[in-house]
Specification:
Length: 436
């Protein structure tokens, strides 16, 4: 069987099963079993493939995923996240568009830990949009920042999705987490600049409203009590990883323990919050582990059938410039993002794209960061980006899809500017991991 026939059989069977409504992880598992039967000698091949797949789940690099997810769930279910949102809102006072800034700052903190852009968008949309609508904010000032937080959250550590991508691609987890710091700060500055420009061009887009006056001492107390401990915990984790004091797995453990202690100190840790946090984290963790299992077996089949080698030989045979090939892969990710969830896209593309990227001489950490940004941009790309429809479901009933599209565009442009900067200046992503 030719390599393109093998690739078509494996990928085609996965897409057909997904179209029939089978869960992504199970679709991959079924297609992998079929492929192993055909390419690896029937029953013996299936047994060998499954044994190798189980081995992929014993990697220590997977430990941060459940711990980062648990950290985020405790942060949300105990109300610590709500305290931080409220405190940032009060600290910004009468700043025009302050709720938009609160959405970017507070929403990024939650989205980074939650590991699900769709869940974060649904939460922020139902929490912040009605409040901003009540305050007279125009739709693009309330919807746009929420759609934008995903791009920021996926690259700023700690990020469960970054850990999963690094594990699937078999690259350094800590290096990928650290690589997102400088680009994440640049993207945050672009988002804040965008909101500032919108409020300057259209002051009526975010009307100012009276807030209770607070002294400097009151603001300082609010900052130290409700913001610094939460943000400080995340910063401490990152600093320890950069300085090599802890591994990503140890950092995740410290983070989960830290947010648990904060919940105890603030007397908001209840048995119900613990149950909900563990249940939510366990649900996403099991899905992530199934994804890792499916990806490991899928990669082996691509290699065993000759599809990986054939695809790389075919793609490099066009003699395209590496940047042009990067843009082709970027475009594929944008298209897939209109129809599939991020983890599903990673499962489908990482085994194909990373070997191709390595053959083109790309730095794996840099390429991983580019890929994460592509995944997040694809989620808000009109007309079919999944987050656009999630937002439609939680936005006020009179919100049109055209309004959602227009709200997303400035933040998509910000992310594309960051991608262009990373292509022109790769050290933005590679310098910090190399110094750690």
């Amino acid at each position: 069987m030719e390599w393109y026939e093998a690739l078509g059989l494996l990928v085609g069977s996965i897409l057909i099963l997904m179209a029939l409504g089978m869960p992504v992880a199970l679709a991959f598992l079924a297609a992998n079993i079929l492929g192993a039967w055909i390419f690896m000698g029937g029953e013996r091949g299936v047994v060998a493939l499954l044994n190798n797949g189980w081995g992929s789940l014993t990697k220590f690099a997977l430990v941060p995923i459940p711990l980062f997810l648990l950290m985020g769930e405790i942060f949300f279910h105990t109300g610590l996240g709500g305290r931080m949102f409220s405190a940032i809102d009060r600290l910004l006072g009468r700043l025009p568009g302050r709720l938009s800034y609160v959405t970017v700052l507070g929403g990024t903190g939650f989205s980074t830990l939650s590991g699900s852009s769709m869940g974060s968008t649904a939460l922020l949309g139902s929490l912040m949009v009605p409040e901003m609508t009540k305050r007279g904010y125009k739709k693009y000032m309330s919807i746009g920042p929420i759609l934008g937080t995903g791009g920021l959250a996926i690259i700023i550590p700690p990020s469960a999705l970054a850990v999963l991508l690094a594990t699937l691609a078999q690259i350094d987890v800590g290096a990928l987490l650290i690589a997102g710091i400088i680009p994440g700060l640049i993207l945050a500055a672009l988002y804040i600049g965008t909101i500032y420009l919108q409020t300057r061009l259209d002051p009526e887009a975010a009307p100012a409203y009276d807030v209770p006056p607070q002294s400097v001492a009151e603001k300082l107390g609010l900052l130290l009590r409700d913001v610094v401990p939460m943000i400080g915990l995340m910063v401490l984790i990152v600093v320890m990883m950069i300085n090599g004091i802890v591994t990503p797995s140890e950092a995740a453990a410290f983070g989960a323990l830290g947010v648990l202690l904060l919940a105890i100190i603030y007397r908001c840790l209840t048995w119900e919050a613990i149950k909900n946090s563990v249940r939510s984290a366990l649900r996403v963790t099991l899905m992530a582990y199934l994804i890792v299992f499916g990806s490991a077996t899928f990669s082996q089949l691509l290699a065993f059938s000759g599809a990986s080698r054939g695809l790389i030989t075919w793609a490099t045979g066009f003699d395209l410039d590496p940047v042009a090939m990067l843009l082709v892969m970027f475009g594929v990710l944008l298209i897939l993002g209109m129809f599939m969830e991020q983890i599903s896209i990673m499962l489908l593309t990482v085994p194909i794209f990373f070997p191709l990227a390595m053959s083109l001489g790309f730095d794996p950490i840099w390429f991983g960061l580019i890929m994460m940004l592509a995944l997040e941009i694809s989620f808000t790309t009109p007309p079919f980006g999944l987050l656009l429809f999630v937002m439609k479901g939680v936005a006020p009933s009179d919100t049109t899809m055209r309004e959602i599209y227009l709200s997303a565009m400035p933040f998509i442009i910000c992310s594309l500017i960051l991608v262009a900067l990373l292509i022109m200046f790769p050290p933005l992503a590679t310098w910090l991991p190399q110094t750690g």
